[in-house]
Amino acid sequence: MRINDRVFGLLMLILAVAYGWGAMQFPIPFGGQESVGPETFPIILSVVMSISAIYMMVKPDPDEKWSPVPMLIELIVVALSILLFAWAIEPIGFIPAATFVVSFLSWRMGANFVKSLITGVVSSVIIFFLFNNVLELALPLGLLEL
């Protein structure tokens, strides 16, 4: 796994740099430069991905044997929960949908029910606050609009 992690990290670093460079090539929006433009999130993502890729190359995980079928089932569960989140964000709102998906995934990773619920509520409220008040990008309230 060590060599696999290092090769994957290198490939992810190349992808992150290309992605960041591509994001910097976006044209300046009509009306002038803004603090948050179309390139902001791709650049942030490329920085986070670059840091993660470098960490993966410097400190790879130890070798472990994984059973492919249970791992495949876990990956399918994660993918389905993210798809459910994407579907539910508009009708029920960001905070309830994010609370559910973060709580569920935290629970699947081994946290007890109470800790996973606290993690889901706190993280969804903080992200909602950051997007709505700091970045001034409205997220849907859904059921909380009443």
Termini separation comes to 51 Å
Indicate how many domains the architecture comprises: 2
Q: Quick one: how many beta strands? A: 0
Range of helix content: over 70%
**Percent strand:** under 5%
Order of helices and strands: HHHHH
Label the overall shape.
Answer: flat
Could you tell me the mean pLDDT? 83
Number of helices: 5
Can you describe what's shown?
This protein has 146 residues and is mostly helical. The protein folds into two domains: 2-58; 68-145, no CATH class. The protein has five helices and no strands. α1 packs antiparallel against α2, α3 runs antiparallel to α4 (94-108) and α4 (94-108) packs antiparallel against α5. The model has no long low-confidence stretch (mean pLDDT 83).
Short account of what is shown:
By secondary structure, this protein is mainly α. The protein contains five helices and no strands. It is 71% helix and 0% strand.
List key phrases describing it.
71% helix; 146 residues
SSE arrangement:
Layout (H helix, E strand, L loop, with lengths): L1 H23 L15 H19 L9 H25 L1 H15 L4 H22 L12
